[in-house]
Amino acid sequence: MSFRNEIRAHLAETGESKRALSLRSGLNARAITDILSIEGLKPRHSTLAALSEAIGRDLLTAETGSKPLTWGELTEKLNRCGEKTRASRVRGIMAKANWYGNKRVCRHDVIDFFEQHSATSLGLSPSSRSTYKCDILAAIDRHCRRDRPRGVVDLGGIWADAYAAVKDSDIPTDCRLKAGPFFVYLFDRGIMPNQITSETLAGYYAYRLEMGVVTEAKCRKHVGNVVTLLRHMRTDPSTAHFGFVAAASPFSDRRDKFGVATGELKDLLNEYDNCLVPWASGNASRDGSTYEAFLAELDREEAKPVCEKKARLRKSVASKSKHRAKAGKEERVERREAKMREYGFLTEDARWSSTTLKTRRGYVISLAKALAGSHDIIVTSLRELVDYEYLAEAAKALSEANGGRKDTGYLVSVLKTMKKIAIGYAAVSDPEVDDIKSLIRFYETGRQGIAPQNKAKLRKFTESRIQSTIDLSGSVMKRINAEIDRRRKAERKKTGVLPDRVGAINLELARDIAAVLAHDVMLTRAPRSSNVIEAMLDWVAFQDDRAVLSIPALQVKGRRKGDPDYVVRLGERASRLMRNYIDKIRPLLLHPGDDENPYLFPGQNGRQFTLNSPYRGLLKRVVRLLHQEVGVWINPHLYRHLVGWIWLKESMDNLPRVQQLLGHKSLQTTVEYYAELDDTLVMDGWQTYLETKMKASA
């Protein structure tokens, strides 16, 4: 029995009126009348749940579907009812909107169409445009079944709770946005979180292809985001208790496009993990000697007795001025580093981070699979992989597999990694290194500086958007303060007590304030993403009420021990925000038991939480705020280019200042990145010069 018949049966048996049942169920007075009289109306899950409880009948499992009306059927109904003028107007708009006779009628489509088209574009007068819109909506309301698509409002039980948890989590935005439609799909089919499989995802993909209006590629990407969503939900503390299964993707792994399993590269990867990683981390030499053994040998050499004259010389040198002492110390450091290189160790500034090790392991796998897939040759060592003949063929296969594209620079990054391995780890000869360098030059993208897709994003920053970017902190904080005031008033109305401002700040508002502060830091001097995320609390000092963030030289790309720190000196407003953040907001962000967290931005509940960790999702929140306020999506690293772009738009004479601001050691680096960023930077300057001269002449 359908849910409508269940309701009718209840009314007939009890004699209760529609209005009374509506009000008793907590609904509006006409709810039951609308449900029973409007053909095809689909009540929300919460509505059916309330009615089920009120009448003691299960309406949630009752049939709710009905065939939707098409535009062709609607015009036929209008003609049969004698509404020929209205039918004519419907057909006129159908032609302009390319709505064919077999297309489903949707009220929202009509609203969107008239929103996007003015009277002029429709060839109508303003009054006629309004008449057409009202007539078509009236026809839909009178003759159509209500075909509201099922959405998150229909979710109930565990799925409604899971959706609410995902919305409030730090799961990546792309994944959170896919939770709604995916949960509705599972809810409608009675699939529980622990029953999700690859077949479930394959069925969802087929469903979206059949029901959607987007391309196959977009459907595939959508399902890929769902795979990532499930992986996050399985481990995220805010969603793990729902019992989601991180099902494998229904699509073949694109990295396995060569048909080579990673397990076939076990010898190569064992060498990478057990030999190269200790070397790249600075814990061992390329031949396996430990760093401790090297230091012990170095100490023994330095402790060897010397003749009397040398002993007197060293004593005399040590007694000289501090400058000489410092020079002597630097000389000893250089000698030690030279000795490290001689013994096959990486010096401190050349060591690979854990992230770099992971990324470059992927490069090794890509090349090895490319060679195996194209020539059926499995390399078993890194020395083989950097051999020019093997490397050239692997690079060729990898390039062809990626469509021969040269705009991403991926293959060049792979080959540069192989060059590092060849020189430092495999210790190949100079001619072999020259061969690898020539291979890199062959696959060079032919460009320097910022990638084309990032240039396109920077060009979206018009003068008004630049101003919105600069004003972002003020506009977001204004909105946050308004929300704090609203929450305080609501609490006073509820309890009679007005809480203080800090007491009205919840976790989400605190995270937004942290994001605003991070935006200020990045806009002030654009440190690299890792330097913002991993900024330590003790790096912050206040000088004359100005907040100063001093990033140690060793933490900054391209700087060595002894180089100056990278100093970010905030302005007055941002300094006040920093002070308030440290004193009042940061304590709200600390996880219970994480009071000793050393980071400026302490870790939050996300994919996984560990004590004394930084807030890894901070910059995702920053760029989300930027998109909301400015209307442009960028990646966090693009902040550095954005700062240079803004200042150079002001004047190309700022090029040396941009170099100093961003900490480039060479002006040439700045020129390569920004001088050719956009011809308009040069042309606008020349046009201004011409106009100035013309005015002077006139």
CATH C-level label of the largest domain: Mainly Alpha
CATH topology of the largest domain: hpI Integrase, Chain A
DSSP helical segment count = 33
Distance between the termini: 88 Å
Domains, number: 6
Strand line-up of the largest beta sheet: 1-2-3
Could you say which overall geometry the principal axes of the C-alpha atoms support? globular
Average pLDDT works out at 82
- Give the biggest sheet: 3 strands, antiparallel
Q: Which regions have little confidence, pLDDT < 50, spanning 5+ residues? A: none
CATH architecture of the largest domain: Orthogonal Bundle
- Compute the number of strand runs: 3
Instruction: Tell me the Rg in angstroms.
Output: 33 Å
Structural class assignment: mainly alpha
**Strand share of the residues?**
under 5%
Helix content: 55-70%
Please give a structural write-up.
By secondary structure, the chain is mostly helical. The protein folds into six domains: 3-55, 434 Repressor (Amino-terminal Domain); 71-143, no CATH class; 152-251; 282-350, no CATH class; 367-442, no CATH class; 463-631, hpI Integrase, Chain A, CATH 1.10.443. The chain is 61% helix and 2% strand. The chain is built from 33 helices and three strands. It has helices at 3-14, 18-24, 31-37, 45-55, 71-80, 84-97, 107-116, 119-122, 126-143, 157-167, 173-189, 198-211, 216-235, 266-280, 291-302, 308-318, 322-342, 354-375, 382-385, 388-401, 410-425, 430-442, 452-459, 463-470, 472-495, 507-525, 529-533, 572-589, 618-630, 638-650, 655-662, 667-675, 679-697, and strands spanning 540-543, 546-551, 566-569. It has a three-stranded antiparallel sheet with strand order 1-2-3. A hairpin with a 2-residue loop joins strand 1 (540-543) and strand 2. Helix 5 (71-80) runs antiparallel to helix 6 (84-97), helix 7 (107-116) packs antiparallel against helix 9 and helix 10 (157-167) runs antiparallel to helix 11 (173-189). The relative contact order is 0.05. The model has no long low-confidence stretch (mean pLDDT 82).
